[in-house]
């Protein structure tokens, strides 16, 4: 395996947490917490810009990682959960309550996949197919959090 492939797998698996034997997506979502803290010190426009860049990077990394795993959307790829959780909390105050509520809601929407989340998961392939459903789960979560807060 080349160094590039190793780095892609490291990023795609959220620093290897994607290899957790149980609930890798849940562990991957937790990896997003330090990134949320980093984003929270930025003005909203820069937070949004940073999250969009992260999403673009996540799509590219997922696109590159799928052939290495030789599987469509393998569970070990968790960079999509990280991106979705960032989307959910961008622009919100970072408190224990917002992090916990965001985490629980995001995992709910990511697992249940209400319309149109499942549609995006099925319609797109490659990196976009891996990441888009989580972005929509993050958007749903963010909407509910904004209604709550």
UniProtKB/TrEMBL annotation:
Originating species: Desulfocicer vacuolatum DSM 3385
Domain YutG/PgpA: 11-148
One of the record's GO molecular function terms: phosphatidylglycerophosphatase activity
Example GO biological process: phosphatidylglycerol biosynthetic process
Keyword terms: Membrane, Transmembrane, Transmembrane helix
Protein name: Phosphatidylglycerophosphatase
Database matches in Pfam families: PgpA
Record-annotated membrane-spanning stretches: 7-27, 33-61, 82-106, 126-148
Top-level division of the source organism's lineage: Bacteria
Source species taxonomy: Bacteria, Pseudomonadati, Thermodesulfobacteriota, Desulfobacteria, Desulfobacterales
């Amino acid at each position: 395996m080349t160094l590039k492939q190793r780095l892609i797998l490291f990023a795609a698996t959220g620093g290897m947490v994607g290899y957790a034997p149980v609930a890798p997506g849940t562990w991957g979502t937790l990896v997003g917490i330090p990134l949320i803290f980093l984003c929270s010190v930025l003005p909203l426009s820069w937070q949004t810009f940073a999250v969009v860049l992260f999403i673009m990077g996540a799509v590219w990394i997922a696109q590159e990682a799928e052939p290495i795993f030789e599987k469509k959307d393998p569970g070990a790829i968790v960079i999509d959960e990280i991106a979705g959780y960032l989307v959910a909390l961008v622009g919100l105050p970072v408190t224990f309550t917002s992090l916990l509520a965001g985490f629980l809601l995001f995992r709910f929407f990511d697992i249940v996949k209400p319309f149109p989340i499942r549609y995006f998961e099925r319609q797109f392939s490659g990196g976009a197919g891996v990441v888009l459903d989580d972005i929509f789960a993050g958007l749903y979560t963010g909407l509910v959090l904004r209604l709550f807060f």
